[in-house]
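In response to reviewer comment 3 from the previous cycle, which asked for concrete evidence that the modeling workflow produces usable outputs, we include below a single protein chain processed end to end. The sequence was submitted unchanged, and the resulting structure tokens are shown without manual editing.
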Amino acid sequence: MVIVGAGLTLRAVAAGDVAKYGGDALYTLLVLALVFVVAPSTPPAKAAGAALAVSWGVEFLQLTDLPAQLARQSTAARLVLGSTFNAPDLFWYAVGAVAGWSLVPRLRRAGARRPVSRA
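The workflow returned the following structure tokens.
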């Protein structure tokens, strides 16, 4: 939810390349978070690699007509798959993967230090 909120906030307060490429990095962070939802014990480097592979795979899929066709039929498909290949996106997906890879150990340490409340 935090990542989606950050993306929506970014779109609301920024424009142009900042919003676009920041959104690309956040897209990969969201995929990384989903990796941890499915497999919580995944090492951060593997989760970041998987998130980057998914992000790049979606971007390269845009070299075909399939995402554009699906985007015309569904807003959800447009949001998830995009429609047009843009090479600089590949770099910004990597930025998101590296950010996630570096943040996960910090978040795990912070969570381990937090006392467990018992109700």
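The mean pLDDT is 87. We consider this sufficient to address the reviewer's concern, and the full set will be provided in the supplementary archive.
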